[in-house]
Amino acid sequence: MRSVGTVTTGRNFAWALDHVLDQWSRGKFAFGQIRICVAESILRYTCIQMKASSDLRRVPELALRQRKQGLVAQLPPIAEILRGSLVERYVTCGHPTCKCARGERHGPIWYLTVTLGPGRTTGGIISDGQLEQVRGWIENYHKLKDHLEKISEINRELLRRQRQQQRKRKGKR
Prior knowledge:
Layout: E1 2-8, H1 10-25, E2 29-37, E3 42-49, H2 61-73, E4 85-91, E5 106-117, E6 120-126, H3 128-172
Antiparallel strand pairs: 1-3, 2-3, 4-5, 5-6
Helix pairs in contact: 2-3
């Protein structure tokens, strides 16, 4: 789907810029161009947007292959991924004279939780020094999972097209 747009003025400009850049970073566009004119607060964008697999049938094969190469290039380093969730907790220690007994809890304390299966979780405390690294690894995991699914959709469409071409060749003989 070709998407062309221009958004002007204050809040709409900021929202549109954030939206377009977010979609770009999530791999929603096969290719495109973003032009920003700050003096006039104008955002212009032109792109070909990737849609659900049913709409991949309309995308040219070259664009699909380019999109797949782009997704592969954007994959995060495999060694820097972590499946799990970060949970921020505020706790009480139980000492009657402590500030937490008056309602001022200790924290934040960050926990990493990982679900291993139905009813089975594991995790541990994350230090402040590790927090940003763990956040990045979790983000990389979600990005990797998302990109692999998109690559699989493109590969399924390319396989469907190859089968279709083979059937046409057999029918001409």
